[in-house]
Amino acid sequence: MCKRALVKWTRVPVCDDCLNAPEPLSADYFCATCNTPFINAYPLDDRGVCAACRSGLRGFDHAASFGLYEGALRTLIHLFKYSGMKPLARPLAACMDRAISNDESFDAVVPVPLYWRRQWKRGFNQSELLARHIGKRRGIPVLRALRRTRATATQAGLASAGRQRNVAGAFVLRAKAKIDPRLAGKKILLIDDVMTTGATAGACASVLKRGGAKSVSLLTLARVDRRWKP
């Protein structure tokens, strides 16, 4: 990242070279449902679906990510989240929008919520800022349909099962009724910044579906590359 990335007082606080540095996700094999990259086709069935999706471990119906959580993209995400560079939300959301086809239609965008204390400390919810720009680009409303009920331990370092236990019961509908009329029968685009195992998104998607959503697709800016590397 060049030194100009530290200039915070411009409209977009990072130079064009740095904004254009992240590359889209590329792999020879992907799961057709969760978009997880694989080094070979062995984990996929004849429909191109991985074992986790076949077993119903995912709460969402489909997932897409712009790139891998490494290199220039990881640096931009850290500047956005931890250095308060909120203007980065617009160009980063533009990257995210490239990960899904213009032919795909959704009825509403829902951001993954932060626990209130973490959002107060950070000053904003990065997923909500991204969701606003995605909603504007797609011409669909942004719904703050979810609430995080408790602070969870950081997901870093936890295995898949541990991540699922960590977020179990951590999300509820904001609506007091069991069915949120804003969600009923709707195709929802769930927004988060980074996906690792999908445990957080799966927990959110399950709540949205119980609240009436017809389907939930996940869109993230980056995903952790969990492929085995020699």
Describe this structure in words.
This protein is an alpha/beta fold and 230 residues long. It has a single domain, classed as 3-Layer(aba) Sandwich (Rossmann fold), CATH 3.40.50.2020. Helices cover 30% and strands 17% of the residues. The chain has helices at residues 16-19, 51-54, 71-82, 89-97, 116-122, 126-138, 160-167, 199-210, and strands at 29-30, 37-38, 62-68, 108-111, 146-148, 171-173, 187-195, 215-223. The strands form 3 sheets. A 4-stranded parallel β-sheet has the order 3-8-7-4. Strands 1-2 form a two-stranded antiparallel ribbon. A two-stranded antiparallel sheet has the order 5-6. β7 (187-195), α8 and β8 form a beta-alpha-beta unit.
Q: Please write the CATH class name.
A: Alpha Beta
- Helix fraction bin: 25-40%
Shape: globular
The helix tally amounts to: 8
Order of helices and strands: HEEHEHHEHHEHEEHE
- Average pLDDT, rounded to a whole number, is 88
Distance N to C terminus: 27 Å
Report the CATH topology name. Answer: Rossmann fold
Calculate Rg over CA atoms. Answer: 17 Å
Could you give a short account of the major beta sheet? 4 strands, parallel
Can you tell me the CATH architecture?
3-Layer(aba) Sandwich
Unreliable stretches (pLDDT < 50, length at least 5) are 3-10
Indicate the multimeric state: single chain
Structural classification: alpha/beta
Q: Report the sheet-strand fraction.
A: 15-25%
Q: Please, how many domains?
A: 1
